[in-house]
């Protein structure tokens, strides 16, 4: 049963009998309570912290006489494209949350740049960079060249901040619930450590996610959440009428959902109907924000190291086997150290004059090791649920901090 911890025969009786306090269900927690609390916290933190860009417009519904298969495809896939668009960010936040925090930092930098340059609010700046404004031809207005067109910035300023916030699917209540759940979980973890109660591996992983996603939530605090429909301005921002809405200037199709932001140097908003999933800015605007990109990259690497460092909280935890213990320790070391090593190589590139091929090889090897370590840290917490020490089921004694009157 989930409420009864199982002990493998390899552990001694002294280990099994390390705690006899868990006899009253009111003073203890079940394995189900631990797992459920962790899963709910991770889901709420990721769901509320991730703020996607405005997705591409959905395709029209099929004709009334269309086949059943065509209608099924439309209902299941095409009508839910905004949700699938958001799920890509959620999957990235689950596998590599430091990438999301770097993306959020870059978007915040661009939004602040637009806000100062064009005398608009930060919410307006976010709404621009996420593709929330489109021109009369249906092109997203996301570049400086477009914003300097006559009347464009004035039309954006004429759109009230309340109108932009009304587009957001998240309000103070829903975000507050997720924030309170995350803070409550972090408080419980701190209290358990203060009372010398062990944290399970799945709780340590959840603590890492809650911490990183709280930072992401702060970076995107002023960005509208889950906007489905852009605001059309009655102005044209240039571009010949013969230009395709789905092609790049060089011809061919452009995938607006490619996860690598560097490939967007060829992205032309005048040849598309939406911005890419991980869109920040064009290559021309990057030159103005060059130093900011370095700062956001440094912050991203440090957050990656912080995410891995939190896993050291389970360094001395009881594992079902020695192999799992060393797998955890090794993966925690890799996830913590690799972002710092990559940062060191990046910052010393101009001093060491590292060949581009060698730099690429080191980056590829480090990324491969990092992915393996992340998978280990996602699988091991679930595998170790088959054995937990008795003390892990003891609940926090809150009366120590809030005495009964």
TrEMBL record:
Coiled coil regions, renumbered to chain: none
UniProt keyword terms in alphabetical order: Membrane, Transmembrane, Transmembrane helix
Keyword Cell membrane carried by entry: no
Highest taxon above the source species: Eukaryota
Residue spans crossing the bilayer: 31-50, 89-109, 202-220, 292-314, 326-347, 359-380
Protein name as catalogued: Transmembrane protein
Record lineage: Eukaryota, Fungi, Dikarya, Basidiomycota, Agaricomycotina
């Amino acid at each position: 049963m989930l409420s009864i911890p199982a002990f493998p025969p390899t552990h001694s009786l002294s280990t099994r009998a390390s705690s006899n306090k868990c006899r009253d269900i009111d003073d203890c927690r079940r394995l189900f309570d631990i797992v459920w609390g962790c899963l709910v916290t991770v889901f709420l933190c990721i769901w509320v912290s991730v703020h996607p860009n405005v997705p591409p417009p959905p395709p029209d519904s099929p004709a009334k006489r269309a086949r059943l298969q065509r209608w099924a495809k439309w209902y299941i896939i095409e009508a839910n494209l905004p949700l699938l668009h958001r799920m890509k960010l959620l999957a990235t936040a689950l596998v590599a949350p430091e990438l999301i925090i770097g993306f959020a930092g870059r978007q915040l930098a661009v939004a602040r740049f637009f806000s100062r340059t064009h005398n608009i609010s930060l919410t307006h700046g976010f709404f621009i960079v996420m593709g929330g404004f489109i021109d009369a031809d249906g092109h997203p207005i996301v570049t400086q060249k477009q914003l300097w067109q006559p009347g464009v910035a004035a039309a954006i300023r004429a759109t009230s901040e309340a109108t932009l916030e009304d587009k957001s699917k998240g309000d103070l209540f829903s975000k507050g619930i997720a924030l309170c759940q995350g803070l409550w979980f972090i408080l419980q973890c701190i209290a358990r450590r203060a009372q010398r109660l062990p944290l399970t591996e799945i709780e340590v992983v959840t603590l890492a996610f809650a911490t990183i996603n709280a930072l992401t939530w702060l970076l995107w605090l002023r960005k509208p959440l889950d906007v489905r429909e852009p605001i059309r301005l009655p102005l044209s921002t240039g571009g010949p009428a013969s230009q395709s809405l789905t092609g790049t200037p060089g011809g061919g199709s452009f995938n607006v959902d490619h996860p690598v932001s560097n490939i967007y140097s060829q992205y032309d908003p005048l040849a598309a109907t939406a911005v890419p999933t991980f869109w920040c800015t064009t290559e021309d605007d990057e030159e103005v924000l060059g130093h900011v990109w370095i700062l956001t990259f440094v912050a991203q690497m440090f957050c990656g190291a912080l995410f891995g460092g939190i896993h050291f909280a389970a360094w001395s935890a009881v594992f079902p086997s020695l192999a799992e213990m060393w797998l955890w320790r090794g993966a925690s070391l890799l996830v913590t150290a690799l972002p710092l090593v990559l940062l060191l190589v990046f910052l010393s590139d101009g001093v060491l004059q590292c060949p581009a091929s060698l730099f690429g090889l080191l980056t590829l090897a480090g990324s491969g090791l990092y992915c393996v370590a992340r998978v280990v840290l996602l699988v091991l917490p679930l595998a170790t649920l088959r054995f937990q020490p008795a003390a892990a089921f003891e609940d926090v004694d809150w009366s120590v901090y809030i005495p009964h009157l």
